[in-house]
Design a protein that fits this description.
With about 350 residues, the protein is α/β, with parallel strands linked by helices. It has a single domain (about 5-15, about 25-65, about 130-345), classed as Histone deacetylase domain (Arginase, Chain A, 3-Layer(aba) Sandwich), CATH 3.40.800.20. The chain contains 9 helices and 10 strands. It has helices spanning about 35-45, 70-85, 110-115, 130-150, 180-185, 205-210, 260-275, 300-310, 330-345; strands spanning about 5-10, 20, 25, 50-55, 155, 190-195, 215-220, 245-250, 280-285, 320. The protein has an 8-stranded parallel beta sheet, sandwiched between helices. Strand 2 and strand 3 (about 25) form a beta hairpin. Helix 4 (about 130-150) packs parallel to helix 5. The mean pLDDT is about 95. Bound molecules: zinc ion. Zinc ion (ZN) binds near residues 199, 200, 285, 323 and 324.
């Protein structure tokens, strides 16, 4: 039996695009689909969990994390797209580039504005996408509330993932950045550390806290030269101004297994501990698993148990939020074993 509360919300089911475009291929069913959460909860229920329903929070929890223009866009875009004759699945065909000298104007047309806010073709929108992403933010906020009320840890079963969503853009399966919202909530109490163990670099989280010296963002991921998000996640990215040094990227070569990954997570935990945070937010992706169809690292189930032990050994108030993880037949057991190891280490 896992004693840390597990926060859930079924609204995520409303985000299920019929297909996505990934590396130029039409992918159906999409990788990031409701069955992921079903697999996780099935694994957790076999060991027994303290399940809590997410509590709704007002939109003010997004303040300081996302530009209001992005939030309004995500909320209102789909009806406008359909009214303009757009097909059922929203995918942009043109994306803004920072190298365009005249790229300062946001288009007003549905297709143009989609390419303004979205960064890739793997993040389609459908009618219920915003409600699903907004519910994941409520899951994250509820998990933080439980920890602030005295629980040593909480796990939020968040979907869609969030760490690729930035201040004013979305992409990489992510619409709203629930880990960043959670960190921002802790920040009212003091310094916060975000440890991101998803196989992909969390470019959105990095950008949101790029100039904030009170939030440490440290990420272990595949070398972005080889893997999404390609343009972000290199060691020389350290934050700006007074926040220089509060972003730390620990990229690993494709194919890296338990030893190098666990060493990097150990370094990440040491950095987090030295920051003396009042709270830790873990972007808990499981796509570094050896069986994952998208990730390029090769961590075994035992390796994930080791990650759980390292995170628990910090013995700090911790919120773990689900990011990626796409090996549906292994996901439930891996989450259950990692959280069990986390909890045992935290209590020891
Ligand atoms: Zn990922």
């Amino acid at each position: 039996m896992l004693t840390l509360p597990v926060v859930v919300d079924d609204t995520h089911r409303q985000h299920e695009p019929a297909f996505e475009l990934n590396a130029g291929q039409r992918v159906a069913p999409v990788h990031e689909r409701p069955a992921r959460i079903d697999a996780i909860l099935a694994g957790l229920r076999t060991i027994g969990i303290d399940e809590r329903r997410a509590v709704q929070h007002g939109d003010e929890v997004l303040d300081g994390v996302h530009d209001p223009g992005l939030v309004a866009y995500l909320r209102d875009a789909y009806p406008a797209w359909r009214a303009a004759g757009g097909p059922e699945v929203m995918i942009a065909d043109t994306f803004r580039s920072p190298r365009w000298s005249g790229g300062g104007r946001r288009p007003t047309s549905p297709l143009g504005s989609l390419g303004w806010f979205c960064t890739d073709t793997a993040t389609p929108l459908v009618a219920g996408s915003y409600l699903a992403a907004r519910a994941a933010v409520d899951v994250a906020c509820t998990a933080v509330d439980l920890v602030l009320a005295g629980s040593s840890g909480a796990y939020g079963v968040t979907r869609p993932p969030g760490h690729h969503a930035g201040p004013d853009y979305f992409g990489g399966f992510c619409l709203l950045n629930h880990a960043a919202v959670a960190a921002h909530r802790f920040r009212a109490e003091g310094r916060v550390a975000i440890i991101d163990v998803d196989v992909h670099h969390g470019n959105g989280t990095q950008d949101i806290f790029w100039t904030d010296p009170e939030v440490l963002y440290v990420s272990v991921h595949t070398d972005p030269d080889h893997q999404y998000p390609y343009f972000s996640g290199y060691p020389e990215e350290l934050g700006a101004g007074s926040a220089h040094g509060t972003t730390r990227n620990l990229p690993l070569a494709p194919g890296s297994g338990d030893d190098p990954v666990l060493h990097a997570v150990e370094v990440a935990c040491e950095l987090a501990d030295a920051f003396e945070p009042v709270g830790v937010v873990v972007s808990f992706g499981c796509d570094a698993l050896d069986a994952d169809p998208l990730g390029q690292l090769s961590v075994s189930a035992a390796g994930f148990t080791g990650i759980g032990q390292l995170l628990g050994a910090l013995r700090r108030p911790t919120v773990l939020l689900q990011e990626g993880g796409y090996a549906l037949d292994r996901l439930g057991a891996v989450v259950a074993e990692t959280l069990t190891a986390f909890e045992a280490a935290q209590a020891s």
